[in-house]
């Protein structure tokens, strides 16, 4: 099971990375980042079967941090929506050079 | 004496400075929410935050003087931790001092902004101490989440919101890489403690285990994002451009110092036995960072973006010291970070003082003839820029920072001659943009329609003077501070020469 879980985790992580690199909507980008973090969580849980509870403790930490990050991230996305009425990254282009 | 971190009282003693800062910051957050937002309340909380930072500095020094150490456990107690704590707290103190006055000009009335700086600083202090992948992850996130908010502090500014969004998305993306790297290293070794990982690497000779290699690579990518090394630097100019000037200075100085602290600790305490595997890669990242950063900085017309590229370049110089892999090199890094923090604080304080209120950017052209209207600002800015450049005498500490860095690189077992030559050559390129600002300030006439520059407040002036005086004084007498930074260097453990067979020279 371990190999399959790690493979699934790697696939999910790759989907997340490809999503961040190709999609242009801030919310979808953020969802892809969350997918990456949860793929890592899957790895940790799978590995903790081999090495003991440390991996599971790590997962709890990651989930807590991801929740805090989501709160801040969504607030930032709302604040840019208030200014620009869009969350499409191609339209958010004041800073250049 | 040697502390046992399993004993609660000794754990508390080991974490005293961090707990002082965090506990005080939480109380200040309550105080900040107590009254409605106003300039007076913002200034009051700023004063309180500065007092708390000074108190924390005191407790860092007191804990350091007690001379206790730990042999294992999730946090370290060594000279490196205490020196980095002081460098980080110095950055936070300067930032809060400048921003209490800058916020009034920018119309930012949020008292909690100072508390966010304190939270970020406590995350950084955890990073300086952390010896466990889990604690490192928490430290990076405590720091980053607070700094994401700080980047978008000016809520009326569309540019600030854009910078914060870019910082947040790329920072969270980088966190994903960092975390996956940690998971794979945990998978390869079964440990999260740095020393245990190091022991497992040697015990099972995992150097060529693909899971470990990919993990180390992903960890390098994640940290390269945090220190803004090329090719993971694209966020830095946009974020510094959008953020208020003092906060941009905080991101350039303290965030980088903390990221390098953990970078150095992971690489020196854990990956020393596989030096040959990473030295080449880190050296190439350093070369790319120095060359690309310097060349792009030449074409910048906005001073905040130029300083952003300059901070990218300094990451490249510091990566050269990381590549050296010796105790001398880590001592050189702390000295460099101290000089860099002082110069960055000063430079961004000047940028803030000269930036017109509102959404306009900070064109370099607006520095023309500064000498004729605000001579002391011009002199200060010249000292900070010369310190960035590493100019002898007038650049003060900056010169010795580069000197120690180069001598550490050349004296290292790998003899990083090529890297040292590139440091020197790219420093010459950097004269192109640093000196052009100095020329604009001193030799060009002030434009007739140039806006009047309001006088800087007393706290900003204090920061400017203290930074300039320290840079020059410690540049004349670097011996006053080198015992401290040299003691803070921690040696990578001795390495089996067979493991060094892969050449370290790019």
Structure keywords:
heterodimer; A: about 100 residues; mainly alpha; 3 helices; about 0% strand; elongated; B: about 500 residues; about 75% helix; disordered C terminus
Q: Topology of this protein?
A:
The complex is a heterodimer of chains A (97) and B (506).
Chain A: H1 2-22, H2 26-51, H3 54-84
Helix pairs in contact in A: 1-2, 2-3
Chain B: H1 8-14, H2 16-34, H3 39-66, H4 79-106, H5 112-129, H6 133-151, H7 158-189, H8 194-203, H9 210-226, H10 235-242, H11 245-269, H12 275-298, H13 303-324, H14 327-354, H15 370-373, H16 375-389, H17 397-411, H18 417-443, H19 458-476, H20 482-487
What does this protein structure show overall?
The complex is a heterodimer of chains A (97) and B (506). Chain A is mainly alpha-helical and 97 residues long. Chain A contains three helices and no strands. The longest helix of chain A has 31 residues, at 54-84. In chain B, helix 3 runs antiparallel to helix 4, helix 6 (133-151) packs antiparallel against helix 7 and helix 16 packs across helix 19. In chain B, 73% of the residues lie in helices and 0% in strands. Chain B has one domain (8-499). Chain B has 506 residues and is mainly α. Classes of the chains: A mainly alpha (97), B mainly alpha (506). Chain A binds chain B through residues 6, 13, 16-17, 20, 26, 29-30, 33, 36-37, 39-40, 43-44, 47, 50-51, 54-55, 57-58, 61-62, 65, 68-69, 72-73, 75-77, 79-80, 82-84, 92, 94-95, 97, and chain B through 133-134, 137-138, 141, 145, 148-149, 152, 155, 158-159, 161-166, 168-169, 172-173, 175-176, 179-180, 182-184, 186-187, 190-192, 237-238, 241-242, 300-302, 305.
């Amino acid at each position: 099971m371990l190999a399959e879980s790690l493979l699934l985790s790697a696939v999910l992580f790759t989907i997340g990375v490809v999503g961040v690199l190709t999609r242009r909507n801030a919310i979808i980008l953020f969802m892809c980042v969350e997918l990456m973090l949860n793929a890592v969580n899957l790895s940790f849980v799978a590995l903790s079967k081999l090495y003991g509870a440390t991996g599971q403790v790590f997962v709890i930490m990651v989930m807590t941090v991801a929740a805090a990050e989501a709160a801040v991230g969504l607030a930032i996305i709302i604040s840019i929506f208030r200014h620009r009425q869009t969350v499409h990254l191609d339209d958010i282009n004041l800073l250049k050079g | 004496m040697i502390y046992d971190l399993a004993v609660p009282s000794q754990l508390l003693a080991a974490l005293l400075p961090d707990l002082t800062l965090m506990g005080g910051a939480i109380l200040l957050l309550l105080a900040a929410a107590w009254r409605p937002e106003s300039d007076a309340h913002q200034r009051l909380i700023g004063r309180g935050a500065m007092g708390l930072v000074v108190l924390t500095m005191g407790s860092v020094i007191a804990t350091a003087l007690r001379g206790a150490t730990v042999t294992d456990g999730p946090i370290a107690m060594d000279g490196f931790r205490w020196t980095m704590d002081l460098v980080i707290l110095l950055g936070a103190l300067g930032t809060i001092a400048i921003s209490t006055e800058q916020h009034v000009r920018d119309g930012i009335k949020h008292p909690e902004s100072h508390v966010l700086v304190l939270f970020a600083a406590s995350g950084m202090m955890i990073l300086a101490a952390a010896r466990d992948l889990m604690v490192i992850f928490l430290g990076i996130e405590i720091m980053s989440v607070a700094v994401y908010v700080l980047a978008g502090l000016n809520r009326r500014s569309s540019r600030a919101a854009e910078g914060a969004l870019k910082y947040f998305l790329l920072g969270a993306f980088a966190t994903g890489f960092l975390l996956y790297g940690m998971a794979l290293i945990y998978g390869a070794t079964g440990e999260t403690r740095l020393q245990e990982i190091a022991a497992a690497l040697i015990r099972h000779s995992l150097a060529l285990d693909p899971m470990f290699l990919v993990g180390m690579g992903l960890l390098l990518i994640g940290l390269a994002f945090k220190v803004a090394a090329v090719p993971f630097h694209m966020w830095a100019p946009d974020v510094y451009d959008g953020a208020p000037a003092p906060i941009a200075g905080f991101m350039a100085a303290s965030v980088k110092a903390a990221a390098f602290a953990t970078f150095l600790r992971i690489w020196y305490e854990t990956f020393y036995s596989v030096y040959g595997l990473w030295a080449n890669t880190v050296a190439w990242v350093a070369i790319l960072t120095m060359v690309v950063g310097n060349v792009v900085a030449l074409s910048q017309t906005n001073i905040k973006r130029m300083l952003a590229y300059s901070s990218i370049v300094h990451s490249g110089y510091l990566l050269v010291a990381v590549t050296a892999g010796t105790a001398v090199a880590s001592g050189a890094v702390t000295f460099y970070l101290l000089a860099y923090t002082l110069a960055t604080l000063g430079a961004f304080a000047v940028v803030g003082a000269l930036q017109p209120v509102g959404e306009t950017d900070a064109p370099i052209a607006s520095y023309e003839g500064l000498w004729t209207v605000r001579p002391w600002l011009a002199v200060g800015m010249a000292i900070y820029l010369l310190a960035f450049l590493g100019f002898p005498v007038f650049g003060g500490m900056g010169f010795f920072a580069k000197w120690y860095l180069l001598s550490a690189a050349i004296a290292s077992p790998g003899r990083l001659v090529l890297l040292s030559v590139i440091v020197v050559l790219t420093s010459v390129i950097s004269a192109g943009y640093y000196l052009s600002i100095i020329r604009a300030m001193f030799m060009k006439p002030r434009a007739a329609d140039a806006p009047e520059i309001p006088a800087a407040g007393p706290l900003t002036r204090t920061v400017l003077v203290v930074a300039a005086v320290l840079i020059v004084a410690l540049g004349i007498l670097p011996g006053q501070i080198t015992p401290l930074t040299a003691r803070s260097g921690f040696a990578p453990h001795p390495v089996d020469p067979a493991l060094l067979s892969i050449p370290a020279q790019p």
